[in-house]
Every structure is written in C-alpha cells, then in structure tokens.
C-alpha cells in the first residue's frame, strides 16, 4: 500500500454514524480550532470504535495547530510529554488529548527525532501534514480522521475497507514498524481481542519472531500496556493471543518458563480462570483489583520457588516469603509493578498457609484481616485447580456464613468438641493449641 494524495471521504450517512454519539467536549475543541483557522479532527481509537457501534474509551483530537498555538486558544490546557509533546485540555475530571500532526521520522533532524541503532524510535516530535500523520500511525483502522463539522471521515490509508473486512493491517513494512516500536505487537493482540478482528497475513507473519524485541521496552511502559491488556472484558482472549504469538514469555518470563515445564495444565488453568473471573466482574460492573490478577499471573513461579527452596528455610512460611520477594524482584525488570501492587500481591500469597489452620481464635481473626477477602478468592482458585483440598475451601466458605458463636464452635479444638461442657477459657486455650 503506498501513499496517495487524494484521500477517500465517507459521509456519516455512508458509514451509519450519528453525530449524537460524539463527545461534546471533543467536538467543541475541533470547532474552536477550526474557527481559529486550523484543521482539527477526531482520530484513532474513537473513530474505529464508533464505526463498530462501541462506546469509545476516550476521544482524541488531531490538528495542524502546534502545542503552543493550542495552549493559546484554551485556558484549560496543559502541555505534557517528552516522546510525544501533547496538549491536554481539561473539562472537570475529563481530559481530551490534542496532538499536532506528526511527520515521518526519516527526514528528522537530531533534536526532534532519534532512532536507536535497532530501529526503535526514541523521540518523535516532527510535525507534519494530515496525510503524513495518518501514515505514521500503527494500524489502518486507527488512522481514520473524523470531521465533526463536515460530518465526514477522511481515509488516506484504506482503513475503512480494512475496518469493513475486520482486518488489522500495519501500514508500511510490518517488520520495520515492529522494530520501530515493539509495543505494536501487544497492540495487535489487544485490538484483535477487543474488536474481534483478524490480523492481516503480512502483519501477522513476523509477530512471533519479533517478540524478543519487547525485552528492550522500558518496564514502566510495559506496566501501562499490561494494564490495558488484562484489565478489560476480553482478558481471556488477550491472554490466549499473547501465548499464541510468544509474547507472554517476554512479559512474564518466569511464568512462561513454569508453564512450559509444567507437568499438568493446572497452573495455566488457574490463570485462565482468573482472566475469566475478571471479565465477568467487569461485565457485571463489579470492581477489579489489578494486584489480584497479577498475583495469579505470578503465582506458579512463587509456588515453584517455595517448593525448591523449602530445605534452606526453617518453615514453609519463610520459604514462601523469600520466594515472593525473589519472583517480584525479577519480574519488575520486565514490568515495573509499583509498590501499591506488589505489597498486596505479597500479602495474598503469604496469607495462603493460614487457610490450612482451622482451629482456634487465630483463624477467626484471619476472617477480619483486611486482605482476607482477596486471599480467600485466591485460595478458591487454588482449590479449583488441585492445589488444595476442596473440603478446606468449603470450610472457609461455610464459616463466613455462621454467627460468632457458631464460628467459635467450628474452630474449637477437637478435644473440646468431644466434651459435653467446654471449659470457660476455651478461646484462649484453643488459640494456643493451634
Ligand atoms: P484504545 O484507546 O481503545 O486503547 P487507541 O487506538 O485509541 O485504542 P491509544 O493508545 O489511545 O489507542 O492511541 C491513540 C492512537 O494513536 C491510535 O489509534 C493510533 O492511531 C496512534 N498510536 C498509538 N500508539 C501507537 C503506536 N505504538 N504506534 C503508532 N501509532 C500509535
Ligand atoms: Mg485511545
């Protein structure tokens, strides 16, 4: 596919689009830019999603106005970014991103653009025309420009046709485009799952071979991408896609290795179930905790390492703590999990041995633990996939339904249960007999 100077244009009517579905703030931004003599369009994911009848996550604006010119027009504007210098226009809690058209990186000078020796783009701040802006995007379906005033969509890249055929096609030579930015590999998997599109053959062919390039992506960026990959209603398909293209191992090398060497598929099933649970919670408008999902993704290496190191420690619990620390320390080299995630992840893991103790006050106190609920949900997954006796899981499910007296009876040591009249100090005594 080559650059062609006359774009195709489609009316809203041709495409079945309704102006009512456009975000009013984004439309008002384009209006003000156009009234000031600039070009301005809605672009990217919002156009792609509207064409599918989906509700866009965010509306992005693209314009030939430069950041300082945008800032001069909007009081509520802040300029951000290094890699891409962007304007953020604030409406209460909502932010609309306004980006200046970018050009191709080949004609760059040193100050504005910069490619790594392996072809990766490090900075990309060369302004360009609308057409150039379209060609530097990733997939054709992400390079459609919607003009809210004229009620048309402008297509330089064959994006409408690909959209109609449900195809994800990278513009240009796919291998070069993946080398420029290997995160496009993850985006291909994510959009394939989200949109139920296919990856066009040439775009798909190099994906497996390119997977190792993800190792060079900063861990902080991979953290952002991993949230987008897994915290959505298509998490299972995304997970399957990452596996299919060998990308999962680049994100979670330790888990990848464990799954490869696993003797049963229980560890894999546990992760798949966690993904399915995430999806159904989101579909039911229930909240999800990212740390929970990450704790399932890294559990198998933690479990394995605990087992391997068991003899070097005085207790299972110490071995588990040490394994948790080691697995996390290695994982943050790939994905920069912040402490607000690693702290509760570690807690969910290290609380697991407490489910094996079902006698005494300590287990009643456990139910009050702030992280009990998450640890319990995690234990249920483990029980479901053969790591724990299902009777134990049932016991913990049951005890939560009992009143305090019934709970005390259930957790009393067996020696007391056999006596008709338990002694008064049974609580303290039973806790010490755990
Ligand atoms: P969603 O918001 O649903 O995740 P999106 O397509 O809007 O999807 P964003 O990350 O918001 O994704 O990016 C907005 C647009 O910027 C994309 O549609 C695409 O045109 C362009 N873009 C984003 N990331 C890249 C990239 N790595 N390479 C090239 N173009 C990109
Ligand atoms: Mg977007």
Write the topology of this structure.
Elements: E1 8-11, H1 12-15, H2 24-35, E2 40-43, H3 45-51, E3 60-63, H4 67-73, E4 77-80, E5 86-91, E6 94-100, E7 113-115, E8 121-124, H5 130-135, E9 144-147, E10 152-155, H6 159-164, E11 167-168, H7 174-180, H8 183-195, E12 198-199, H9 201-204, H10 207-210, H11 219-230, H12 235-244, H13 248-251, H14 253-261, H15 266-283, H16 290-297, H17 299-309, H18 316-331, H19 339-350, H20 361-368, H21 372-384, H22 390-399, H23 404-411, H24 414-418, H25 426-432
Parallel strand pairs: 3-6, 11-12
Antiparallel strand pairs: 1-10, 2-3, 2-9, 4-5, 5-6, 7-8, 9-10
Helix pairs in contact: 8-11, 8-12, 14-17, 16-19, 17-18, 18-19, 21-22
The structure holds adenosine-5'-triphosphate and magnesium ion.
What keywords describe this structure?
alpha+beta; Beta Polymerase, domain 2; cca-adding enzyme, domain 2; eight-stranded mixed beta sheet; two-stranded antiparallel ribbon; 25 helices; elongated; disordered C terminus; binds adenosine-5'-triphosphate
Question: What report would you give on this structure?
Answer:
- Helices cover 51% and strands 11% of the residues.
- It is built from 25 helices and twelve strands.
- The protein is α+β, with helices and mostly antiparallel strands.
- The protein has three domains: 165 residues, 2-Layer Sandwich (Beta Polymerase, domain 2); 132 residues, cca-adding enzyme, domain 2, CATH 1.10.3090; 65 residues, no CATH class.
- The C terminus is likely disordered.
- Helix 17 crosses helix 18 and helix 18 runs antiparallel to helix 19.
- The strands form three sheets. The protein has an eight-stranded mixed beta sheet. It has a two-stranded antiparallel ribbon with strand order 7-8.
- It binds adenosine-5'-triphosphate and magnesium ion.
